[in-house]
Design brief:
The protein is α+β, with helices and mostly antiparallel strands and about 270 residues long. Helices cover about 25% and strands about 20% of the residues. The chain has six helices and 13 strands. α1 crosses α6, α2 crosses α3 and α5 packs across α6.
């Protein structure tokens, strides 16, 4: 069957775009109705009034993890499952029951305090304190992205350029792969990535509610201040790995995530 029979997110060209740029945007990945149902639940848990901007006193409020209901349904649509198979490999990823925590961003003059360039860490290092379960500062990321198949951005509200869209350094996953390779399986932590991929193009994770960005786990990204008028609801969960990524496969059946890493390591011009 040719690409013309598939949704745009599932074509061979889309896979190549993901390998080259480090992310794939899927419009309408889940229904707007699910986004509205989820936002109604979250508004009940927020310490402010959706109709009264004077109560929006903080630039960001982090809500705890949400599972089941519209959250689980949003993460498990047929188009997303097909995209996971395409980018990670059939049988190589773990379905999600929910979407984890939500950093809800409000229009506010103050710096949110969490807008540095980074990649999401995925496993605890040997130096992690077992008594500090919520301290992720010493977590690590390694060249095979242990524990994380993808970084995902789920938009539950319409996000324009002024609505604190996540900033993305296009192609920066290639730079990160080369940075992580010398550290081997142990990986790296306590990374300062303000200049990593700084010369690369910038993209903004904008879109209507129901849009999902599927990102290479090494993609360098950052939050930013909200300059719009409407609070932004977005989840940023990982997709788990059922089988570890491998950079050497006898059958050559590499996923686009693996192919991107291999290309970065073998072609310094990427």
């Amino acid at each position: 069957m040719t690409d013309e029979h598939y949704p745009p997110a599932l074509t061979a060209a889309a896979s190549e775009e993901f390998i080259r740029n480090g992310f794939l945007r899927i419009d309408g990945a889940f229904p707007r109705e699910l986004a509205e149902e989820a936002c109604a639940i979250m508004w009940r848990d927020l310490p402010c009034d959706p109709g009264d901007p004077t109560t929006w006193t903080r630039p960001v409020v982090r809500l705890p993890g949400y599972g089941g209901g519209p959250f689980a349904a949003s993460a498990n649509t047929p188009v997303l499952h097909a995209a996971f198979d395409q980018l990670v490999g059939t049988g190589r990823w773990v379905p999600r029951d929910g979407l984890g925590s939500f950093p809800v961003r409000f229009p506010h003059p103050d710096d949110p305090g969490d807008a540095g360039w980074h990649v999401d860490l995925s496993f605890p290092g040997e130096d992690c304190d077992p008594n500090e379960q919520q301290d992720f500062s010493a977590w690590r990321v390694n060249i095979t992205s242990r524990g994380r198949a993808l970084l995902m951005l789920f938009l539950f509200s319409d996000v324009g350029e002024d609505d604190a869209p996540t900033r993305i350094r296009v192609g920066s996953h290639m730079d990160m792969a080369r940075y992580l390779a010398p550290a081997g399986e142990a990986g790296r932590s306590h990374m300062h990535l303000e200049t990593m991929g700084a010369e690369r193009p910038l993209a903004l994770a904008t879109g209507e509610a129901g849009t999902v960005y599927l990102c290479h786990p090494f993609l360098v990204h950052a939050a930013q201040k909200h300059l719009g008028t409407t609070p932004r609801f977005m989840a940023q969960p990982p997709l788990g790995l059922a089988q570890p990524y491998r950079l050497e496969r006898e059958d050559g059946n590499y996923s686009p995530v693996e192919t991107a890493i291999r290309r970065a390591l073998h072609d310094p011009s990427c």
